[in-house]
Amino acid sequence: MSALLEIRGLTAHYGDFQALFGVDLALERGEVMAIIGANGAGKTTLMRAITGIARVSGGSVALAGRRLDRLAAPDILRAGVSMVPEGRRLFPSLTVEENLLIGAHARRGSGFWTLARLYDLFPILRERRQQPATALSGGQQQMVAIGRALMSNPDVLLCDELSLGLAPVVIREIYAAFPTIRDSGTAITVVEQDIGQALKIADHVHCMMEGRITLSGRPDTLSRDAIHNAYFGVH
Ligand code: ATP
């Protein structure tokens, strides 16, 4: 049987500049996959190519066997791939609850995620649901961004740099929600510059450098040296 999300030979360009070179990845149901790599490795481009925001110039992306790479971004969302973008991109003048409800516009059937279940996942959001998103701390805003993405009941949740700019204790609090999300039936891909965090939460880790996957494996099988070389390159 094919993987839930299957990426084959994916390439992407910005004009003449090639940002992705034949990326192959497979995400299984119930799995958390982490993609690590330094600044500029191509991680965000990969997320944007999967979600239809960046144009794919070659290769394929399929969800449960259905090709996504020729669909427009809103159709990819409706097909079941939802993203938490880098920088969160909340609607600042809307309340927490209004931001969450925006995610429900792309809602697919009657899935697991409802406002009540999101508030159980992140109880602080229930307390602050009538406040504008900007009144929240960075970590709480990240919870809103995750909640908004979950409200479409996706098969796959893509998270871009969740930990950027957040304190370690806050990062741990956010990642503590992952087992519940995974158990709800949503497979997860996280992009992280924070290697330690990625190794802790992922079933599979892939390292990217200069638009290519340079190392893949389960966290317990990857040595520090191998990760270091794949992340920074061997000089
Ligand atoms: P970061 O951690 O900084 O987000 P990243 O691994 O996500 O890094 P990308 O943002 O995907 O990397 O960038 C990959 C390459 O593509 C980089 O060389 C970057 O300069 C280039 N790039 C990204 N966005 C654009 C764009 N809009 N136009 C031209 N080049 C771009």
From TrEMBL:
Keyword Nucleotide-binding assigned: yes
Matches recorded under InterPro entries: AAA+_ATPase, ABC_transporter-like_ATP-bd, ABC_transporter-like_CS, BCAA_Transport_ATP-bd_LivF, P-loop_NTPase
GO biological process: L-amino acid transport
SMART domains, per database record: AAA
Keywords: Amino-acid transport, ATP-binding, Nucleotide-binding, Transport
UniProt-listed Pfam families: ABC_tran
Keyword ATP-binding: yes
Domain of life where this protein originates: Bacteria
GO molecular function, one term: ATP hydrolysis activity
Similarity annotation: Belongs to the ABC transporter superfamily.
Protein name, entry field: ATP-binding cassette domain-containing protein
Species of provenance: Paracoccus limosus
Lineage: Bacteria, Pseudomonadati, Pseudomonadota, Alphaproteobacteria, Rhodobacterales
